[in-house]
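## retry 2 of 3
previous attempt timed out at serialization; input unchanged, resubmitting
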Amino acid sequence: MRRLLARGVDALLEATVVLSFSRIGYRVRRRLARWTALDSYRLQGRVILVTGATSGIGFATAEQLASCGATVVLLGRDRERTEAARERILQTTGNEAVTTLIADMADTAAVRRAASEFRSRFERLDVLVHNAGALVHTHTLTSSGVEITAAGQLIGPFLMTGLLLDLLVRSAPARVITVASGGMYAVPLSVDALVSGRGPGEEEFRGPKQYARVKRAQVTLNELWSERLPRRDVFFHSMHPGWVDTPGLTEALPRFYRLIRPIVRTPAQGADTIAWLASDDGVPLSSSGRFWLDRRPRATHWLWKRRRREPAEERRRLWDFCMTHSGWSGDVDSVVEVARAVRRARAGSAASFED
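## retry succeeded, writing output
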C-alpha cells in the first residue's frame, strides 16, 4: 500500500513540474519511498572520477562518495580551486584517497592529457561522473571551431568516456553518469543547432537555449552509449538534479533564481541521485541508458511528446558529430573485447596466486 501511495504522489509531483523539481518533491519522495541512506554504502576499493567537482553539485557528489570510502578524483579547470576542494573534502571526511586532475573539458588536448594522467595513476575506473558545465551568454568558439557549450559538455565528456572506456570495462560492472537538466524537455535534438548555436528562425545566439540543446544531446548520447555497451560491462545513466542552489544557477539565470529561490534544493539534495546511482548495486545495475530524477527513471519527453523518439538519422549524426570533433578513433567493440580479455587474464592470475 505504501509503495502504491509513493508512486501516486510521485506522479502528481511530476505533473506539477515546479514541485517535482523543487526541494518539496525531493523531501516528499525521500520520505514516502524510504530511500536508503547514502552514508550506509561502503565504497572502499572503488575509483570514481567526478568532473566539475570544485563547487555545487559536483563538490557535493564527490564529498558524499568520499565519505563512503571511495577513492575520488576531482577534476577541475583551476588548480587552486580544485586543490582547495580536495582539502575541504579531506577535512570533512578524513578520506585521504582524494586526488585531483586539472583540465578544461572544452579543450580536447587538455582532456587527453587528463585521461593519460589518470591512466598512469589508476588501473581501474568504477564510476565516471560527467558534471562539468556552464551556461554562457555569448557565442564563443573553441580553437577547434566548436561552440563552447557543446565542446565542454558534449565533446569533452564523449572523448573522456572513450579514452577511459577500457578501464571502465575492466572494472565491470562500471557506471557512467551524466548530469543533465530538465531544460532539455523544451527542445528537440538538433545537431545543426548544436554546431551553429542557433535553431531554425533564431537570428542570434541564446545561451539558455543552447544549454538546453546540449542537455538534450547529452541524454540522447547516454542512450547511444548504452546501445553500444553490454550492460554487464558498463551502465550508462543520465539524470536531472532538480533546481539546485548553485553558483551556476545564481550567476547564469539571476532572475529565474530569484523567482524559485524559496524552493530550490541544496547541492547535497541535487547530488543525491548521482551518489545513489554511483553506489547502489541494485536498481542502478538493472538497466542502462535511462534518465533519472529522485531515484526513479523518467520519460525523456513530456505529455503528448512522451512517446516521441528522435529520428534515427539525427541520432546517428549526433554520434558522428562527437566522433569527428573529439578526434576519438576508438572502435567500441574492439575496446570492449580487449578490455574483457585483460579482465579475464587478471582474474585468472589472481586465482592462481590464491591457489
